[in-house]
Every structure is written in structure tokens, then in C-alpha cells.
Design goal:
This protein is mainly β and 94 residues long. Helix content is 0%, strand content 44%. The protein is built from no helices and nine strands. A five-stranded mixed beta sheet has the order 5-6-2-3-9, with no helix packed on it. The chain has a four-stranded antiparallel beta sheet with strand order 1-4-7-8, with no helix packed on it. A hairpin with a 2-residue loop joins strand 5 and strand 6. The radius of gyration is 12 Å and the shape is globular.
Length: 94
């Protein structure tokens, strides 16, 4: 399945005045949203993906899949689908 067809698991927007981090799982996958940035979080469908657990972290959110060990995380940002890395700094992609 092409990642552009992955379901949207959440929409996140940074309405603060500082960078906002979204940490995915315990492995070093991270998305850094600058003020005003908005993303759609995508992942490959899996019977073990949902429900997600979302926890507040000091400078953002930590997101965990239900039982899926390593979801194929992507984000849609400004119409582009991007594989999440360590880290994915969205301001570098504008």
C-alpha cells in the first residue's frame, strides 16, 4: 500500500510560540512542528495499530500504537507525504 493511502490517525497543529515535538514510539522517530505547522499523522493499517496512546511530554507528545511494534509512520505536511525520521524537522522541508 502506498503511504499516501494510509489512514489519518490524527491532525496536529502547533499553536504555540515554540517548536513542538511529536515522539513516535520508543524508537527515535520524531516530528518537529514550528509555530503554525499542521500535520496529519499516518500509519500503515494493522490490526494491532489502534487504539493509540497519546501522552504529554515536556515539549510535545509521545504517541504509541496499541500492539504494533513498529508502525510505518508518515506525516502529510503541506500536501506532501513524508516518512518520519529521527528527527523530521518540518521547517527544513518548507
Amino acid at each position: 500500500m502506498d503511504p499516501s493511502q494510509y489512514p489519518v490517525l490524527g491532525i496536529y497543529r502547533n499553536d504555540t510560540e515554540a517548536d513542538f515535538h511529536i515522539y513516535l514510539e520508543l524508537i527515535p522517530e520524531e516530528v518537529v512542528l514550528s509555530p503554525g505547522h499542521e500535520i496529519e499523522l499516518l500509519a500503515k493499517p494493522s490490526p494491532d495499530l489502534l487504539p493509540l496512546t497519546v501522552c504529554l511530554d515536556g515539549d510535545g507528545l509521545q504517541i504509541f500504537a496499541h500492539k504494533d511494534f513498529d508502525p510505518d509512520w508518515h506525516v502529510r505536511f503541506q500536501g506532501r507525504v513524508i516518512k518520519v525520521g529521527s528527527p523530521t524537522v518540518l521547517s527544513d522541508l518548507e
